[in-house]
Amino acid sequence: MQDFIADYPINVRIPVAWGEMDALQHVNNATYFRYFETARLDFFTQINLMSNLQKTGIGPVLSETNARFKRPVTYPDTLVLGVKISDIGEDRFTMHYTAFSEKQQAVTTLGWAKVVMFNFKTGQKANLTPEIISALTPHSL
After folding, report:
1. DSSP classification of residue 17
2. How far is it, in rounded angstroms, from Cα 140 to Cα 37?
């Protein structure tokens, strides 16, 4: 666990809820996209991207997302989701999620999302600012 935290200094702990289980007695696959969303928003808050959205009207939107399930997760458990960044471009970047089970002491799920900057005032894509690129870069793969 300590190695995982060292690899993912921005992470979020998410307790598994009983209601997230499906008929096969493991966390439903769609639930992981909510977990990824929680990790994504926590990451954006920690690098001040959400406060920037409030000031400028420019913020992140998803263009694509994916999950790879390696091990089933069951209640009770707590997942620690870590985030890394890759493919920083002019107006987009890719987020990588890794879910670590405290009960299993193993990585259970991997995911990624392509994030595009969007100007909510004009309805158009927007470029990443130097400040955002600077905030993303230390978390790159």
Report:
1. P
2. 19
